[in-house]
Design goal:
Length: 147
């Protein structure tokens, strides 16, 4: 779930961006618990514990992943997924920002950018999120396809 949805502030309108974040966190989880990881360094075990924890703990893992001082001793799958996860998270943050601008921003700006049909607006954001992932998967395909 996205940070906003996990924090559970009321009222909250769940967005397609929240759903795309669920996909992101599923990919992060699958990376950290990949069955081909034979040795589990202490840093990886710490991340595994944090991902199971609070929103703040999980965000700390994301922060570590985007840190330029990324540990090269981590398992190959984690190192290989790191650039994709970095770019994907950055893109999702931009999508969240756009969503917030629309729903909390200037109504005229909102009206000029999107049709009046709210379901279509949701679809646009959902497709933007899927497109973001598809473009990044294609960009990183060569590295992620190697053993």
């Amino acid at each position: 779930m996205s940070r906003q949805l996990r924090r559970g502030r009321q009222p909250y309108l769940q967005s397609p961006v929240d759903d795309i974040f669920s996909f992101f966190y599923s990919a992060l989880w699958a990376t950290l618990w990949n069955e081909n990881i034979e040795e589990i360094p202490s840093e990886l075990e710490t991340w595994r514990q944090k991902v199971r924890g609070t929103s703040d703990n999980r965000e700390a893992v994301i922060h570590d992943l985007v840190d330029e001082r990324f540990n090269i001793d981590l398992p190959k799958i984690v190192r290989d997924m790191n650039p994709l996860l970095q770019e994907w998270h950055k893109g999702l943050d931009a999508l969240v920002s756009d969503w917030i601008d629309i729903y909390r921003g200037d109504p005229e700006k909102f009206a000029s950018r999107f049709p009046p049909d709210k379901l279509l607006e949701f679809d646009i954001f959902a497709y933007r999120g899927v497109l973001l992932f598809a473009e990044l998967a294609l960009k990183h395909k060569a590295r992620l396809s190697t053993k």
